[in-house]
Amino acid sequence: MSSLCSNSATSLSCNNSFQSKNPLLHTIFNFFPSIKPHSCFPYTVIRCSIQKRPEYIPSKISDHKYVRIFDTTLRDGEQSPGATMTTKEKLDVARKLAKLGVDIIEAGFPASSEADFEAVRLIAEEIGNNSDGDYVPVICGLARCNKRDIDKAWEAVKCAKRPRVHTFIATSEIHMKYKLKMSKEEVVEKARSMVAYARSLGCEDVEFSPEDAGRSEREFLYHILGEVIKAGATTLNIPDTVGYTVPTEFGQLIADIKANTPGIENVIISTHCQNDLGLSTANTLAGACAGARQVEVTINGIGERAGNASLEEVVMALKCRGEQVLGGLYTGINSQHIVPTSKMVEEYTGLQVQPHKAIVGANAFAHESGIHQDGMLKHKDTYEIISPEDIGLNRANEAGIVLGKLSGRHALKSKMLELGYDIEGKELEDIFWRFKSVAEKKKKITDDDIIALMSDEIFQPQVVWQLADVQITCGSLGLSTATVKLIDSDGQDHVACSVGTGPVDAAYKAVDLIVKVPITLLEYSMNAVTEGIDAIASTRVLIRGEDDHAITNGSIGPTLHRTFRRLARLPE
């Protein structure tokens, strides 16, 4: 199989004799003519293995088969409506990403707010200087092409061992005309001067993105990319900002940039694919086939509009098929941390992973069809191309440990390690007593119960008011009465009663009478985490204060966005 990173220009042939119905396969066959559509590959279940990561050098990679994983969950992912996270939550996610082994963490957009600046700075300070294993991730801050943004980004990330500034400006005709109201010459000068400015601050790792590259004029794209390379850019990120391209187009775009941009051999080409047409993962893989050696992704594929390329999908596609059809491409990701990281992001953002989501969905390894079940019982490789254990989905305990009300701390800790949580000290003690409380009420404690307990323990803000009791009476005409008892931080009891249009409205009005802070309930939802009449439920609450000051831990401006996990029995 030919090398993916040869110095010669790479291009796609439109006259290839094989016209696959699958655009991604068409792209792959063009890049690797030795791969034929009738080729037969051994069907093996992927087992977890981590190849040695090349030494980090901003503008080059010593192993041409290595693909850097740039995670933008904390920046682009947080742009999903309702997905705002607190500083503490961002730190927790960044720690998980470091355990996962991502190469670059885009920690946020420092110029957007003081809260985001502080979150990026703290991530750079902690995660950007502590290795989990033998690698310290690059910490990146986003900036528009202006000095204020770049100053903020550099100030936030400069304390990291490997800081990066990522700056961008739109290059498509529609964006330049209607959004920027700038000429091509002005855009080129702005991009060139701001990349040079970032380098002048002492930042040796500068990424540049031509926004909406997928709809930009090719010759103009080659020109502006060549200019920012001369100004000192080390990574060129090619965004399909509106998810408009299909794999053959995007692969060709990367190939054309590689063949026609002056100085391209001195930088890393990156991809950033949105999912508006559901093609973000396919486009990302096509870009990697064409020579991109950095891919920008998010956990669970969250992001603006329809989301981004999913980290778990891209990583496992490379792990599963990289050696066979993708030229041996590989990453440094420890895939056993995928599921715990996915669950944390799901918990913090409140964005539920759809059950049939590839890799991390609840049904991804479920087999209901009789034919499939028969095959699985005879040999599990018949219907599983990936081992669930290798993404951190452990459903069997080799020691035969079954947790119940008589289980001790050691057994609980063993189960937590199996599920991907390494806890000690007070954290273990606190969750142990919560576990005992649930175990007294449930005959069978499942893995999902344990994960829900863990979520409830570590994902919550400091308690200011504690719910002691609530009693609700509902009528047939929709009028409900709620009596609520809260305990304040000094241990004093407070009781109030109110009526409302439904039990939730009545309960929150009673809380208002006690707390004496006017709030508006924007969203309330409850989802079962486990099965059965004694199941644990996940409750999501979104409230807004009527003034601009912070009135509870985790507030962001006037909007108070918290995801509350509480152990509760579902209504019988």
From TrEMBL:
Task: Print the keywords alphabetically.
Answer: Amino-acid biosynthesis, Branched-chain amino acid biosynthesis, Leucine biosynthesis, Metal-binding, Transferase
Which pathway does this chain act in? Amino-acid biosynthesis; L-leucine biosynthesis; L-leucine from 3-methyl-2-oxobutanoate: step 1/4
Question: Where would one find coiled-coil regions in this protein?
Answer: none
Enzyme Commission number(s) of this protein: 2.3.3.13
**Top-level EC class, please?**
transferase
Family matches, as InterPro entries: 2-IPM_HCS-like, 2-isopropylmalate_synth_dimer, AIPM/Hcit_synth_CS, Aldolase_TIM, LeuA/HCS_post-cat, LeuA_allosteric_dom_sf, LeuA_bact_synth, PYR_CT
Q: Name one GO molecular function term.
A: metal ion binding
Under the heading Pfam families, the entry gives:
HCS_D2, HMGL-like, LeuA_dimer
Catalyzed reactions per annotation: 3-methyl-2-oxobutanoate + acetyl-CoA + H2O = (2S)-2-isopropylmalate + CoA + H(+)
Q: Which residues form the Pyruvate carboxyltransferase domain?
A: 67-339
Q: Which family does it belong to?
A: Belongs to the alpha-IPM synthase/homocitrate synthase family. LeuA type 1 subfamily.
As for what it does, the entry says: Catalyzes the condensation of the acetyl group of acetyl-CoA with 3-methyl-2-oxobutanoate (2-oxoisovalerate) to form 3-carboxy-3-hydroxy-4-methylpentanoate (2-isopropylmalate).
* Protein name in UniProt: 2-isopropylmalate synthase
Question: Which species is the source of this protein?
Answer: Nicotiana tabacum (Common tobacco)
